[in-house]
């Protein structure tokens, strides 16, 4: 049973001001309705004025997605009533979108895949409703228009995706692309909303509305695949409907009533002139995108394709990587450390690279690379620092942390009789007579056990080679 | 602190021209220093209630001035009050005001025309020398003609619409109304010009001294302007006026304007479509009586809109909603836009040969109250004024005589952006008449 998925992605463009007025878009931590003016409140008599920066951002996206940009593009009104909609219509685009017929290449379930983009258009975000007194039976509802007028782009794909996982991969690639273009900030709450159309081949399609997180998309689709497959197995028909994703429970539910099919009565926005976009788009130069950067990482730093993909799959990580000294970038050790260790630890804590004071981590990497700390020690320092950041929003300098935790590499002096490694080795030998006996009887694995014991005692700060040398020396009775 | 200068304004408003007045309005220095100016109630005035003569906006006090009001204040005018109108501009008589009709100062048993009837009556009744009106399909020119004053509908884009509460965005313009062409010209100089807040604004200032020289001006008179429905007495008065211009040296040529046949339909489809969308924001959440929160939101929206809007407004919202509906868009809205192109093309063709067009502003003199009781016959009376709105070209109405005691208006329509020329022709007529 083939799964068919198409996505409609709404992203807030990261401009300084709103789409049709000069109000600041930096509203998230501010009082309700404090980022408003007659235009974004939709006061009678006010008129929209298109923010050129927003159009330019959207055109960058159109170019990055290899879209065709028409001579002229036009805004339309989408008419419907809702309490968060201040004008009773949304200014969006309908039959003359900014861009059509593009594509985005991803690593699909069965290798490289080209996902076709139907269209890219611009629109304004509506306001936001705040329900007071419990979500289920709110006592009253307040309206906040701070979000009203934030520029959005809607990116619509053809039904080219074949699994929830592939949809997730597509979204990750899209996010990376948008961030490379400098037009989108995925970290801002509510900056991305996805509607997904999903069907099992041969059955009706279902639309899942308003998924607000990357993980949510995969979850919602996975739930829906299971639900639809089970229905079909039981011989039930899939009903064409709109469903909502309940993030907290990880399920989709049918939208309450069979509301009438909305008729949005689109018509061209008479207060705005058509935009001449073709020449404009041609003049725009877009920066290096993830695929190109990946190739460059492979070529310039001799990284494996997997490492290169991971390191360039997020703009900030790629940027971080390229702040490291050139010779370090070409080291597999560094690549592994950033791609696997750092990202793994961040993921585990549900943190993003932006939360990390990059100078500190650069320093830690440099200390590690120069042998000032062992790999294990570095991991411990990394964890300590990340925990500090998560708890307090900041962390100590790596060098301090290494010193405080005593994790600096222990170097054994040639003649040193009582350096920490030797004394730990002596203790290990005394405490494990059985292993010593085994070793002397020729069972070489016993040495590994003893090395492990010494490493434990030195909390990973000794170099394994030193431990080996000291242990063999002691066991052969030279000392 | 320097005291802010102000004037006293205590009019005897026996015609109900004003919805509200300001008794000691501030004024200042400038081209309109100390001149009392009335403003139609669909133009936003900071701190002064602005209702569009609708119950649904009762109590709404805009926090900002329309661009034209800013201009008036900057030039020292005293904004003395807000004038009555047909609710949201929807009407030809000012009878559709939720707060009662305005009377025609020329004959108080008759309507002043509309929708800017309050502004026209305030001028004709001698309460103010000039006023702002708005014209979507004749709403400045019709009351100017019925009340015997001068009113100019500017080229679309020459006057900023920022702050004008929209009825039909693609058609309407704010314009000057006054007792004579000179004052219309003065007011136009103040309100016109580019405004970055209005994307449809033209970058063209209006600085003009009216010129009464008419010799060499070619005036076209389309047969359709004197077609069926035009009162022969009105036609005769207007022909006399045109003959006078000819005697003064203008060249008169008759011509045809076939697109007039669908102008009215194109107009009513376009304006109702746009209105249905523009007026959607009045839902009880932000303006007027608050929505009943015990009901579901859509129930309370319906209730607020049913109670807040008058009959004609509800009718036009329904018409526009229907015309934009899925499956009907192509049949109505798209067709109306095609018809608009024809009207524009017709004007362009005619203006290759003539400088202006002349004819009656309205097919008849002012109606008696209640005379046009069915909406369709009311709509038909807009036939001569709507073409200028459809094409965005300037048109002026200037008094040209009377039928009995009732004024008749001569309408001069000009090329796109040539507002100065229609003002000149109107001025030439006015000067010729008084000479």
Sequence-ordered SSE layout with sheet pairings:
The complex is a heterodimer of chains A (479) and B (435).
Chain A: E1 3-12, H1 52-64, E2 72-73, E3 76-79, E4 89-92, E5 99-108, E6 111-124, E7 128-132, E8 140-144, E9 151-157, H2 164-180, E10 192-200, E11 206-211, H3 214-233, E12 241-246, E13 251-254, E14 267-268, E15 275-276, H4 278-283, H5 290-301, H6 305-312, H7 315-321, H8 326-329, H9 332-348, H10 358-369, H11 375-392, H12 398-404, H13 420-431, H14 433-440, H15 445-457, H16 464-475
Chain B: E1 18-21, E2 36-40, H1 67-74, E3 78-83, H2 117-124, E4 130-135, H3 141-147, E5 150-153, E6 173-178, H4 181-191, E7 218-222, H5 232-247, E8 251-255, H6 260-278, H7 297-308, H8 311-324, H9 333-353, E9 356-360, H10 375-380, H11 386-391, E10 395-403, E11 406-414, H12 419-434
Parallel strand pairs in B: 2-3, 2-4, 7-8, 7-9
Antiparallel strand pairs in B: 1-3, 4-6, 5-6, 5-10, 9-11, 10-11
What is the arithmetic mean of pLDDT of chain B? 96
Rg of chain A, Å, rounded? 29 Å
The major pleated sheet of chain B works out as:
11 strands, mixed
**Most extensive interface, residues per chain?**
A-B, 30 and 46 residues
Shape of chain B: globular
Corresponding CATH superfamily of the domain at 18-191 in chain B: Amidase signature (AS) domain
Mean pLDDT value of chain A: 90
The strand line-up of the biggest sheet of chain A is 5-6-9-1-10-11-12-13
In helices, the fraction of residues of chain B equals: 25-40%
């Amino acid at each position: 049973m083939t799964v068919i998925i198409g996505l409609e992605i709404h992203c807030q463009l990261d401009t300084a001001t709103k789409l049709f007025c000069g109000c600041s878009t930096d509203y998230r931590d501010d009082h309700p309705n404090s980022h408003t003016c007659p235009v974004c409140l939709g006061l009678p008599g006010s008129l929209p004025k298109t923010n050129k920066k927003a159009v330019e951002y959207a055109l960058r996206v159109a170019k990055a997605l290899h879209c065709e940009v028409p001579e002229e593009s036009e805004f339309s009104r989408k008419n419907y009533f809702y309490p968060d909609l201040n004008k009773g219509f949304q200014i969006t685009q309908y039959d003359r979108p900014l861009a059509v017929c593009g594509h985005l290449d991803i690593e699909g379930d069965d290798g490289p895949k080209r996902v076709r983009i139907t269209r890219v258009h611009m629109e304004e975000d509506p306001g936001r409703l705040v329900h007071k007194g419990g979500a289920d039976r709110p006592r009253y509802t307040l309206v906040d228009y701070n979000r009203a007028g934030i520029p959005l782009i809607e990116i619509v794909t053809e039904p080219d995706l074949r699994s929830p996982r592939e949809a997730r991969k597509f979204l990750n690639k899209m996010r990376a692309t948008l961030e490379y273009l400098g037009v989108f900030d995925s970290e801002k709450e509510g900056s991305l909303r996805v509607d997904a159309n999903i069907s099992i081949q041969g059955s009706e399609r279902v639309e899942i509305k308003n998924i607000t997180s990357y993980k949510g998309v995969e979850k919602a689709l996975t739930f829906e695949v299971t639900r639809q497959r089970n229905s079909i197995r039981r011989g039930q028909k899939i009903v064409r409907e709109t469903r909502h994703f309940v993030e907290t429970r990880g399920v989709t539910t049918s939208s309450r009533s069979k509301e009438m099919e909305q008729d949005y009565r689109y018509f061209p926005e008479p207060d705005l002139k058509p935009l001449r976009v073709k020449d404009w788009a041609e003049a725009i130069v877009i920066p290096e995108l993830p695929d190109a950067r990946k190739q460059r990482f492979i070529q310039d730093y001799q990284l494996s394709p997997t490492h290169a993909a991971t390191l360039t799959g997020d703009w900030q990580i790629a940027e971080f990587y390229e702040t490291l000294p050139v010779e370090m970038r070409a080291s597999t050790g560094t690549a592994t450390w950033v791609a696997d260790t750092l990202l793994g630890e961040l993921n585990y804590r549900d943190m993003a690279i932006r939360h990390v004071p990059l100078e500190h981590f650069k320093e830690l990497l440099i200390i590690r690379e120069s042998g000032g700390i062992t790999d294990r020690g570095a991991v411990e320092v990394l964890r300590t620092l990340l925990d500090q950041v998560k708890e307090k929003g900041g962390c100590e300098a790596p060098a301090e942390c290494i010193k405080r935790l005593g994790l600096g590499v222990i170097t054994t002096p040639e003649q040193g009789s009582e350096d920490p490694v030797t004394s730990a080795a002596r203790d290990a030998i005394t405490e494990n007579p059985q292993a010593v006996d085994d070793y002397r009887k020729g069972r070489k694995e016993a040495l590994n056990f003893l090395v492990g014991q010494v490493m434990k005692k030195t909390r990973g700060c000794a170099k394994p080679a030193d431990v080996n040398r000291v242990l063999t020396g002691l066991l052969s009775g030279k000392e | 602190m320097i005291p802010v200068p102000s004037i006293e304004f205590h009019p005897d408003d026996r015609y109900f021209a004003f919805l509200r007045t300001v008794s000691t309005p501030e004024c200042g220095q400038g081209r309109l220093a100390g001149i009392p100016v009335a403003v139609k109630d669909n133009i936003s005035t900071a701190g002064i209630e602005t209702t569009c003569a609708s119950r649904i906006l009762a109590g709404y006090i805009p926090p900002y001035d329309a661009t034209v009001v800013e201009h008036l204040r900057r030039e020292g005018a005293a904004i003395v009050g807000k004038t009555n109108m047909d609710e949201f501009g929807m009407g030809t008589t000012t009878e559709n005001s939720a707060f009662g009709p305005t009377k025609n100062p020329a004959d108080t048993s008759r309507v002043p025309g509309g929708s800017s009837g309050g502004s026209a009556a305030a001028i004709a009744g001698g309460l103010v020398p000039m006023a702002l009106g708005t014209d979507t399909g004749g709403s400045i020119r019709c009351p100017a003609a019925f009340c015997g004053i001068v009113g100019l509908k500017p080229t679309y884009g020459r006057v900023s619409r920022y702050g004008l509460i929209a009825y039909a965005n693609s058609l309407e313009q704010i314009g000057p109304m006054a007792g004579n062409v000179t004052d219309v010209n003065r007011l136009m100089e103040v309100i016109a010009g580019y405004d970055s807040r209005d994307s449809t604004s033209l970058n063209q200032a209006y600085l003009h001294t009216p010129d009464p020289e008419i010799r060499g001006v070619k005036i076209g008179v389309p047969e359709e302007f004197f077609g069926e429905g035009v009162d022969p007495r009105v036609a005769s008065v207007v022909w006399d006026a045109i003959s006078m211009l000819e005697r003064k040296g203008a060249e008169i040529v008759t011509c045809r304007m076939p697109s007039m046949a669908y102008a009215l339909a194109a107009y009513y489809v376009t304006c109702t479509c746009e209105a249905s969308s523009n007026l959607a924001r009045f839902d009880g959440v932000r303006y007027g009586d608050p929505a009943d929160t015990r009901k579901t939101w859509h129930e309370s929206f319906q209730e607020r809109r049913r109670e807040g809007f008058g009959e004609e407004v509800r009718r036009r919202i329904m018409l526009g909603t229907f015309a934009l509906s899925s499956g009907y868009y192509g049949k109505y809205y798209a067709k109306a836009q095609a018809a608009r192109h024809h009207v524009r093309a017709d004007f362009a063709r005619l203006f290759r040969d003539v400088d202006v067009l002349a004819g009656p502003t309205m097919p008849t003199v002012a109606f008696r109250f209640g005379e046009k009781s069915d909406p369709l016959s009311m709509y038909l009376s807009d036939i001569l004024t709507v073409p200028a709105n459809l094409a965005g070209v300037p048109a002026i109405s200037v008094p040209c005589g009377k039928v009995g005691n009732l004024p008749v208006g001569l309408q001069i329509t000009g090329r796109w952006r040539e507002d100065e020329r229609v003002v000149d022709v109107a001025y030439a007529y006015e000067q010729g008449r008084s000479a």
